[in-house]
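Ticket 4471: requesting a sanity check on a complex prediction with iron/sulfur cluster. Repro inputs:
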Amino acid sequence: MDCSGCGASCCKNLVKERGDLEIGLFLLVHEKKKLTELAAEKGLGVEIQPLHYLETSWNEQKILTYQMINKDCEFLEGKTNKCTIYKDRPLVCRSYPIQCKLPNTDVEIDLDCKNTSEIPRVSKKFGIETISGKEEAEQNNRELFRSLNLEEEYQAYLKLRNIWFNMLTEYGRVGEATLHVYDHTRQELFPFIVLQNGEWLHRKIVEER
Ligand code: SF4
Ligand code: SF4
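Returned structure tokens:
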């Protein structure tokens, strides 16, 4: 993807509004560990907090994912706008501008990226909001992203989505569990999804409050 002249806007203002919540840069557990080590080596003040918690019916809590909540990414080199941990960058950076709307897994494209200026026109035709898991939609998305030269990004999105899906299903299978999303700006946990034996029931946050 050609990022020349953009000023790395995707690596700045990392905390974004998602529905009612403000969420930082999404990190899987192993990514959080790696980025914490790299930040320590480089002497950077990286701030990471939990994002998704799973609470089982026997009150066991498990942190599933984390969020980096620095305003701008500390790993971005200011003068050159280059990522200083490029080979270790998280999956969410690799898939950008294609994004998962977690905790759902719908495909979303960040239209703030200058490389997406052509996408709205094309997406109207394909409907990028198509739900994952439906073969026809998957095929359409694959063709769409190939035609936009975003095949690598789409592969990263699929990997991230599968890790997420497997994680939820694995814990959901053991019984009943509730997924919470942590909004660090309000220091609150919001119940979001109830899992029952591998099936999940979506609950709108607004209905919970
Ligand atoms: S991916 Fe998009 S927003 Fe990020 S640096 Fe490239 S053009 Fe800019
Ligand atoms: S890790 Fe690298 S690619 Fe990801 S937000 Fe930070 S600077 Fe950008």
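Notes from triage: Residues 11, 73, 75-76, 83, 85, 89, 93 surround iron/sulfur cluster (ligand 2) (CB under 6 Å). Leaving this open until the requester confirms.
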